[in-house]
From TrEMBL, chains A, B:
<dbReference type="InterPro" id="IPR009057">
    <property type="entry name" value="Homeodomain-like_sf"/>
</dbReference>
<dbReference type="InterPro" id="IPR036271">
    <property type="entry name" value="Tet_transcr_reg_TetR-rel_C_sf"/>
</dbReference>
<keyword id="KW-0238">DNA-binding</keyword>
<dbReference type="GO" id="GO:0003677">
    <property type="term" value="F:DNA binding"/>
</dbReference>
<dbReference type="Pfam" id="PF21993">
    <property type="entry name" value="TetR_C_13_2"/>
</dbReference>
<feature type="DNA-binding region" description="H-T-H motif">
    <location>
        <begin position="35"/>
        <end position="54"/>
    </location>
</feature>
<dbReference type="InterPro" id="IPR001647">
    <property type="entry name" value="HTH_TetR"/>
</dbReference>
<feature type="domain" description="HTH tetR-type">
    <location>
        <begin position="12"/>
        <end position="72"/>
    </location>
</feature>
<keyword id="KW-0804">Transcription</keyword>
<keyword id="KW-0805">Transcription regulation</keyword>
<dbReference type="Pfam" id="PF00440">
    <property type="entry name" value="TetR_N"/>
</dbReference>
<protein>
    <submittedName>
        <fullName>TetR/AcrR family transcriptional regulator, lmrAB and yxaGH operons repressor</fullName>
    </submittedName>
</protein>
<dbReference type="InterPro" id="IPR054156">
    <property type="entry name" value="YxaF_TetR_C"/>
</dbReference>
DNA sequence: CAGCCCCTGTACCGACCGGTCTACTGGGGC
DNA sequence: GCCCCAGTAGACCGGTCGGTACAGGGGCTG
């Protein structure tokens, strides 16, 4: 827990590859389901390098991967929101994107955070904290967007929380049912409701 | 989906204890996080008995546990719905109940299905199928209730799916954030919306 | 061109994983 | 009264787990 948190995670570097592949494995198998050996062979990195860059072992690596996944999700959201101009449309794009991932992976790649979050009860504090922070970050980002779109909204945080919960749940349902239908249904209804709530008397944006 | 799949799972019997403790462990740790030895010691059953009653090993046991968990959730839902008289109120009671579980377990016990569903990509077909069936059962139960409460509703299945997704997501969020706030927020807003959608011009039930 | 040191590669470790096997026990049917 | 076998008990298996130790290696310094 030194001040220098994760400086050496350049995309192509050894730590970078390690974190990226870990994030991918974590996404479809969860923490206990993703073996260290599997991560190593998939990223083409020997064990010695792992413990050089991440003395904390699997937990530290997972924590970093969770942070990167969260950052990726937030970045995607910001991008969609900027392009679409409304939170409702951004949510739709967001769901579409993860529906694609799901379908392309034969319904193995769900939410990058969900698999780890679901078993957070059996995880080290390091990872546990990171998962909490990741969720807060995601909710906070939505809340900021909502407040920006309609400064008069009474409770942006509540709406943001509802959005994240709905999307997260839809992703889980989609994975379990092996169908993108839940995502389509939820995003459609959710987007409409967000628009209605953000612009009570106006154009649905 | 045979009518008689697991006849020997009486509550107090050896298979019964096995399935119940497995369900509990699965709920907080997921499939790979719950060790077989741990299940055995927690239920006070030796290994020989396990493989006598469940020749399929851990996967068969987990599949059975998932089925039992799903049945329990459905039963709780039906009970709440019967007592409350409206789907909206039932959802609220449903969320309250799982919020209690969460808080009582120091935020380890989330949705009994979520942890397994989240890592379903790395599971045997047996378990995978059971998780899908469980989710379908849950959604179907909600849909039936909705249709019963308002036969004119245009798409009970869609609303049911949205409900399950929202609750599932709220449970996940609550577990990650170690707070029941997401559940409270989501259930409140969800219940209100369900009432509005089921009784467009009338009493909010 | 020598030395150093960050990083890599790999052999190895004990613990534990899920699963198999066999010995034993006790109670109901004949 | 005997037997039989469903059910229990636990020793044991190979494999894999996450983690450690240490011997190179190679590029940047001097």
């Amino acid at each position: 827990m030194e001040p220098r948190k994760s400086p050496g995670s350049a995309p192509g570097s050894t730590p970078g590859r390690l974190v990226t592949t870990t994030a991918a494995l974590l996404r479809e198998r969860g923490f206990h389901g993703a073996g260290l050996t599997e991560i190593l062979t998939a990223s083409g990195v020997p064990k010695g390098s792992l413990y050089h860059h991440f003395p904390g072992g699997k937990s530290e690596l997972a924590a970093e991967a969770v942070r990167q996944s969260a950052a990726g999700m937030v970045a995607a959201l910001e991008r969609f929101a900027d392009r679409a101009g409304s939170t409702g449309a951004a949510v739709r794009a967001f769901c579409d994107r993860y529906a694609e991932d799901l379908a392309a992976s034969d319904f193995r790649d769900g939410c990058p955070l969900a698999a780890v979050a679901a078993e957070s009860g059996a995880l080290h504090e390091t990872v546990r904290r990171e998962i909490g922070a990741a969720m807060e970050l995601l909710v906070g980002t939505f809340a900021r967007r909502i407040a920006a779109e309609n400064p008069a909204h009474p409770d942006p945080a509540a709406l943001a929380m509802e959005i994240v919960a709905a999307v997260e749940g839809a992703l889980l349902l989609a994975k379990a049912l092996r169908s993108t239908a839940p995502l389509k249904t939820v995003s459609e209804r959710l987007a409409g409701r967000i628009a209605a709530e953000l612009h009570p008397r106006g154009h649905p944006a």
